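Honest question from a wet-lab person: if I give you the sequences of every part of a complex, can you actually get the arrangement of the whole thing, not just the pieces? Trying it with mine:
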Amino acid sequence: MFSTMAQRLQELMVLFFLAIFSKAVAGLKPYTRANLMPDAANNNYCLSWRLAVEANNVRGWRTVPAQCLRYIEAYMIGGQYDRDLEFITQQIWSYVSGIVPSSDGWMPGFLTLMTLASPMSFTIRERDMGTCDPYDPAGFKAWALMGGCPAIPAVLRLFLDLVEGGFKVFLVTGRDQESLGQATADNLHNQGFIGYERLILRTASYKGQSAVKYKSDIRKQLVEEGYRIWGNVGDQWSDLQGEFLGNRTFKLPNPMYFVP
Amino acid sequence: MFSTMAQRLQELMVLFFLAIFSKAVAGLKPYTRANLMPDAANNNYCLSWRLAVEANNVRGWRTVPAQCLRYIEAYMIGGQYDRDLEFITQQIWSYVSGIVPSSDGWMPGFLTLMTLASPMSFTIRERDMGTCDPYDPAGFKAWALMGGCPAIPAVLRLFLDLVEGGFKVFLVTGRDQESLGQATADNLHNQGFIGYERLILRTASYKGQSAVKYKSDIRKQLVEEGYRIWGNVGDQWSDLQGEFLGNRTFKLPNPMYFVP
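Yes, you can. This is the full assembly:
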């Protein structure tokens, strides 16, 4: 029931998001549900584009290419996006399951349910928990304020498994702390993200800094506090580049927007 | 004519390569041309796997998953691999075309045909120029010794464009200099890779080092010689990680083998 509703919401979000884009593209037919059928002639090109985005070969793109709007919509709500997420969260869990406890003096106070002697942290960006937080548009800020972003089921499951597995999970987001802090915390709670160690939003001192710099600084602080970052998960390459990246990084798919 | 022959050779290589793998997989039907039709039921999973490989989410894999052998074969010779390569080499060329000449004292002797005042280098791994150099198998070493690896047309075109554009192109490969140096140079020449600045193979002093360490050292040396590395192209993430990576990295697709 919850899962069906979440999926409906997700579909609506994709449509809403792509509708905004299509408005910006001159000469394109109105973006209605009726003409959303994937155009087979474009599929090969758009598959190349999507691959290039995920491999970080295409950077700084501001919108989905006009000819790929329908393809990306079909990808997002047609099942393959969910399968890609499922595949990657399984990879993450397989990696996590192979972590061997050690006792090398890292924050010995953080013994976990997995009886690891060293503390662990696992950063997941808050952005990855819903599909309704694209880069910048004011309309989405208003939406975020409502605290109604639906969770991505596969990411929620991974999160809960990590918490249950004894990982200290840090949620690091570029959202503004002052204006969106409370709404974000509420949203996480109403979606079931319960048990994380800390939610870290962008404070005034980081305003205007690039995502790579801001997030590197946050990770540095965590390491200096004594955390070992076992994994670093994000849907943007700017989450996974810079310094103090952690032992492994994982890129979740996101062909909808690019955060520099 | 040349291009058709090269394509035939490439197809044969894919078959040969996948055949070796299929032998290693117990219970699999003999890998013959007759049963190479992609299995539709596997396609979605294998597409997720291929995406995860290119995004560096799956690491250290030794073989293509058994259920994806047919899918990968179809990908490699059915057109999408060529389209992906074409897409990325266009991205590279678009990036290269945007490079603005500067005169900041980097090796002023290296004025180029593009009248850039600073020297430029563009590393391309030799491995990316053919599909016949998988990781380690002795049979392929013998093949490499024959100097018959066919060029990938899109990469050859990019190479020639870069040379003509005035870039100093360095070819950096993990191949052993002593045993494969001459054959590799001959192979490059007979495939039309003419005009590169330097071909760099693995000397005895780098034996046993990881690809990331060895290639970082090589790039460091180039930078110390005064080269600015504008671009770094490879089909393995181990080409694109480590130090002195250059201003931009580009990952060429390769779902056939993984070099740690």
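Two things worth pointing out. The beta strands of chain B are 120-124, 168-176, 198-202, 228-234, 248-251. The first helix of chain B runs from residue 2 to 24.
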